[in-house]
Amino acid sequence: MKILHVDLDAFYASVEELDHPEYKNRPLAVGGQREDGILTTANYPARKFGVHSAMPVFMAKSLCPDLIILPMHRKKYLEKSQEVFDLLQDFSPRIEKVSIDEAYLDVSHWQEGEIEKSLALKKKIKEETGLNISVGLSYNKFLAKLASDWKKPDGFFWIKEEDIPDLLFPLPISKVHGIGSRSEDRLHRMGIRTVEDLYQLDQDFLQDHFHKAGLQWYRRIRGIDPRPVEVNSRRKSLGTEETFHEPITKREDILAILKTQCQELEEESLKKGIQGATVSIKLKTKDFKVYTRSKTLREPVYRWQDTFAVCRDLIDKLALKAPLRLVGCSLNNLMDRGIEQMTFL
Questions:
Q1: Residue 340 annotated to the active site
Q2: How far apart are CA 296 and CA 279, in angstroms?
Q3: What's the whole-number mean pLDDT along residues 85-111?
């Protein structure tokens, strides 16, 4: 099996730079316009100052006083994303879209010339859309995603079977897919900081202490990840979520994030011709407690105004005051959209 993982570099900021070439190579972020607003993304010049997504505007400006902050233009980003995904079809019909700026491609049909074809993909995306894309090639999903991050931005890296496990040994354990900050802290307390440290632990130990996740880590750092590229699978739900480096607390910031997510769900629903009878929210606090709330409606919905109204109602009823490190929403109980939905909320 051969899998590509492709990831558009600083996507929202890069799209804005296309419309504002005068900001090229200057620190730029996309997000809220108020001092207490939240950034969605930052370009690489801004990241050199420590600016990152989910950072409050006032903090970002303290790190980088010359930071340019532009508002979100969701429709523009979705249109640009579609341009990229249309071009990816030229390289493989088997594509699993992970998010607006990220995908896996099954390129097992590439019998030779893998480097040339990967570089040709990068070149075509750049020439046709103006965007840089980082590409990772390997024989499973975990390693392909790791490879795409290896030489960011605008990078290409190929991880082969003979590279494993030695290539991974110097990496911090945070690079292993599935190890979040909570698990990372636990492992650090055990003296486990690198993949090489993790490799020394036997399978039973990891399963006993971390259950199913521990078994997955054990296998992945040994190059074992059987997950296939899933194409056009029938989805039981349609959702999106965002994790923040710095927890958020203000209701208006949470609602602003949910509004953007509901707009993204509408676009995806329109593309797939579906709607959902249940709207759900997912919140994770700073201390990793997870709260989910759902509401099933008399009529299915897909328009963002309707899903957002439900999300807002669920947030208000929950009245959660703890800082949040993850916010997400989803449509469930999906069905085909046979008739045009009327907005009723």
A1: no
A2: 7
A3: 92
Rounded Cα gap, residues 15 and 40, in angstroms: 13
Burial class of residue 80, CB neighbours in 10 A (0-12, 13-18, 19+): buried
Rounded distance, CA 274 to CA 101, Å?
A: 22
Checking if the pLDDT of 275 tops 60, the result is: yes
**Whether 322 contacts 286, CB under 8 Å:** yes
Give the whole-angstrom CA distance, residue 297 versus residue 277. 6
Nearest CA-CA partner of 92 in 105, 83, 101, 103: 105
Angle between helices 74-88 and 251-272 (to 10 degrees): 40
Averaged pLDDT for residues 45-62: 94
Candidates 102, 264, 266, 268; catalytic one:
102
pLDDT band of 235, cuts 50, 70, 90 = low
* Tokens linked to 313: 């109602």
Residue 163 neighbours by CB distance under 10 Å: 14
Q: For residue 253, how many other CB atoms are within 10 A of its CB?
A: 20
Note the pLDDT of residue 228.
94
Rounded Cα gap, residues 8 and 80, in angstroms: 11
pLDDT for residue 336: 72
Query: What average pLDDT score do residues 120-129 get?
Result: 97
pTM: 0.71
Given a contact cutoff of 8 angstroms between Cβ atoms, the answer to whether 36 and 54 are in contact is no
pLDDT in tens, 71-80: 989 889 989 9
What are the tokens at 276? 């959902």
Q: What is the pLDDT of residues 214-227, one digit of tens each?
A: 999 999 999 999 99
Please tell me the distance from the alpha carbon of residue 218 to that of residue 212, in angstroms, as a whole number. Answer: 10
What's at 99, amino acid-wise?
A: S
Structure tokens at 197: 């440290």
Q: Which positions ≥6 away from 334 have C-beta within 8 Å?
A: 235, 236, 237, 238, 274, 275, 276
Contact by Cβ (8 Å): 182, 241: no
The pLDDT value recorded for residue 41 is 92
